[in-house]
Design goal:
mainly alpha; 1 helix; 0% strand
């Protein structure tokens, strides 16, 4: 949404789209071969930060998350 106080033009969410490929290694997994949830969440947060910064053209941080189910 555009604001009178903002010089940032409106953006369609698709303009901030990001796709990231992350290679997982054995150190990212437990002995059963399942990638640790924290490792997955770290990458989710990284991509969310990329998209948020692209969209807002400003720094962004994760303040909270309602839930993550694996």
């Amino acid at each position: 949404m555009s604001s009178e106080n903002s010089n940032i033009p409106e953006k369609n969410p698709s303009e901030s789209h990001a796709e990231v490929i992350v290679r997982m290694f054995p150190t990212d997994a437990n002995p059963a071969g399942n990638v640790f949830g924290g490792e997955i969440f770290k990458n989710i947060d990284m991509v969310a930060g990329i998209v948020a910064q692209r969209h807002s053209q400003s720094n962004a941080v994760t303040v909270s998350l309602d839930s993550v189910n694996f």
